[in-house]
Structure formats: C-alpha cells, structure tokens
Amino acid sequence: MSAQLKIDSRVEGEGLAVLALTGEVDVANATQVREAGLKLISDGVRHLVVDLSQTEYIDTSGLGTLVGLQKRIRESGGEVLLAALQPRVRRPFEITGLTNVFRLYDDVGSALEELRS
Amino acid sequence: MKTATPDQIELRIPRRAEFVRVARMAACAIAAQLEFTYDVMKDIELAVGEACANAVEHVADVACEDILVRFSVEPAQLAIEVVDRGQGFDPARSQDQEDDWGRPGGLGLVVIGEVMDDLEVSCDPETGTCVRMVKYRAGE
After folding, report:
1. Of the four, A2, A71, A101, B98, which is 20 to 30 A from B73 by CA?
2. Superfamily, domain A5-107
C-alpha cells in the first residue's frame, strides 16, 4: 500500500525539463520525487518546471524535497520553478513561507516561456 | 456546564510512512461526519498527516512500532492526539535547521500550528511523544 503518486518527466529542450506530479506527495513517496529530480539533474537538466496541476495533496516532506532539489540545481546555476499550484497545495507553501523559495506560475506554459525568454 | 464524556475514536497504525495516509483518510472521514467545511476538513487532514509523519521520521526509537491516533469528539471541538512511544523528537527543532540534503526541518509543527486552533506537544522519555491538536466546531 502506498499513497497514489504518478511521476512523469519530459525534456523540453536543452537543459530544460518538466516534472509532473499527479496525486498525493507525502512522507511515503517524497523520496520518489527526489530520485526523479536528481536523475534529471544528473542527465544535465539545469532548469526544472514542476507541474503541480494534478497534485491533490502535498505535505512538508514533499515541500522539503522540492527545496532540496532547488538547492541542488542552484549549485549548477539552474532553478526549479513551480507551476499550476491548486489552492490546497499552495496552502502549505504559504504557511511555511516557501513561496519565497520558488518562482510560481499559473501554468506550465508560462513557466517554460519565462525560461526561454 | 457540559460534562458529557467525549466520543472517542482510536486508530493504531504501524509506524511506517505508507500508513500515514490511513490516518489522514480517517481524519477526513471524521471531520466530514462532524460537518466541518471542506477546507477545514482538508486542514485537519494536513495536520494529522504532519503529526504522523513526524512520528515516523523523527522518532529514533526502533522499538516504537506503532502510532496511536485518538479523536475526541466534543460538542465544541474535535481534539486529536497523535501518540508514539518513542523517545520523541525535539519540538523546538529550528525551522532553520536542515537535514543532510538541505531540506528544512521543523516545518510540520509550523503547519499544524497554523491550520489548527490549538497545538500542544509533550515529550517524555517514559511515555513518549504526544501531539495534541484541537479544531473548534463552528457555532460553539
């Protein structure tokens, strides 16, 4: 038994990828998100857009994992951007002040456009 | 003066990450039964999830095999206790501290304190750790 989480990643160009998290991100599966992000970074991704449009729940294990990815990717001059946070997902980010750690976008397309500009 | 004994629902889950979701689901069901709004129900779910995750992640005592989640339904409030028999985590753990991967620590209690109306954490080497949180019921 595990919380339902589907992780999809796709490369959107040189050094640029989208990581889509569908379902619930919690203490039981945050490590999977970490591993998926680290694999992209090790494959040369320097800018990562995390698509949260289909994320129904996230706890501080998930938040901490995204912060860890942000720190890791910044070491190579890159950035993690968050896109399409639903209100229930945005809430823990706001409570903890972690909205200041990421640039937030209404949708994935806007985040990609920003990175390509 | 209200003296009625609260209705209690107790759930005991293995102290493993994959069972935290079970406690969250129970919290949602009970909150819905008490006719909390959807947003409050999801706040209660988040608080219970964070308290159980703390018990899973920060209790070093491997002899602590399970977590007790006790819901006490009273006319004016829903009180929830998350109890483990481990040696406890440090509730004063700074938000500024990080783990070995750069993840901030102590955020779970910050979230619980924000989404619930009351929060108490007690740690005792003999009895373990108890996170007690309360949500007031509307109109009471």
Report:
1. A2
2. STAS domain (3.30.750.24)
